[in-house]
Specification:
CATH architecture: Up-down Bundle
Oligomer: single chain
Organism: Olea europaea subsp. europaea
Function: Channel protein in tonoplast. These proteins may allow the diffusion of amino acids and/or peptides from the vacuolar compartment to the cytoplasm.
Strand content: under 5%
InterPro entries: Aquaporin-like, Aquaporin_transptr, MIP, MIP_CS
Membrane topology: Multi-pass membrane protein
CATH superfamily: Glycerol uptake facilitator protein
Structural class: mainly alpha
Family: Belongs to the MIP/aquaporin (TC 1.A.8) family. TIP (TC 1.A.8.10) subfamily.
CATH class: Mainly Alpha
């Protein structure tokens, strides 16, 4: 049966495990955004291309996949390795994380993305992060659908490899599977919506770089896609759980 929903226990706000998990989400998101956005700035500095070429897209997809693999792997045993407000939202919709823990994660993820963008701005001598915007010739609603579908695939993979209590040994390759689907999605959606799949990844560069065009798409799309994945996997794929997977134990990272 799917887990129940909980706001979170009072002691969770000050529990050392909660603080460590929140810090892990902050640092992992910082690492991911710095490398991902940094790869775009590096290509822009080296080649000054006016349009995104196939080779550049491949490099950007690879940089994001490698960075996400490292970010998820390094935080999975502490926080569950969300590194993404949409992933946290999908887990919340499925009852896999308390509301209080989700709020902590969202704050940490957004701050991590903002700090990463600021560090990039300082390290590159004032280059503004580019963030995301809809490509020329692509409609806003087309881009929204793209972000929904891409994020659905990402969060569905997270559920299958990292959250499902019956995942068994499959959990050991979760960071790799998550990185693979993210990189593949960048190759598909990059030329259209930019393939954010992560509201924090979009927000940090937008704030520091002052680029807010079409920004609402990069919140609404990923959150809708994540919610769909959480509902479908939680209520359609997960059939039974062992007793220790209950909503009364929201602090263990393996529950996420």
């Amino acid at each position: 049966m799917p887990r129940g929903y909980t706001f979170g226990r009072a002691e969770e706000a000050t529990h050392p495990d909660s603080a460590r998990a929140t810090l892990a989400e902050f640092l992992s998101t910082l690492v991911f955004v710095f490398a991902g956005e940094g790869s775009i700035l590096a290509l822009d500095k080296m080649y000054r291309e006016t349009a995104l070429g196939a080779s550049s897209l491949l490099v950007i997809a690879l940089a994001h996949a490698l960075a996400l693999f490292a970010a998820v792997a390094s935080s999975m045993n502490v926080s569950g390795g969300h590194v993404n407000p949409a992933v946290t939202f999908g887990a919340l919709v499925g009852g896999r994380v308390s509301v209080l823990r989700a709020i902590f994660y969202w704050i940490a993820q957004i701050l991590g993305a903002v700090v990463a963008s600021l560090l990039l701005w300082l390290a590159t001598n004032g280059l503004k992060p580019q963030g995301y915007s809809v490509a020329a010739g692509v409609g806003e609603w087309n881009a929204l659908v793209m972000e929904i579908v891409l994020t659905f695939g990402l969060v569905y993979t997270v559920y299958a490899t990292a959250i499902d209590p019956k995942r068994g040994s499959l959990g050991t390759i979760a960071p790799l599977a998550i990185a693979f689907i993210f990189g593949a999605n960048v190759l598909v959606g990059g030329p259209f919506s930019g393939a954010s799949m992560n509201p924090a990844r979009a927000f940090g560069p937008a704030l520091v770089g002052g680029r807010w065009r079409d920004h609402w798409i990069y919140w609404l799309g990923p959150l809708l896609g994540a919610a769909l994945a959480g509902v479908i996997y939680e209520f359609g794929m997960i059939q039974a759980e062992t007793p220790h997977h209950t909503h009364h134990q929201p602090l263990a990272p393996e529950d996420y």
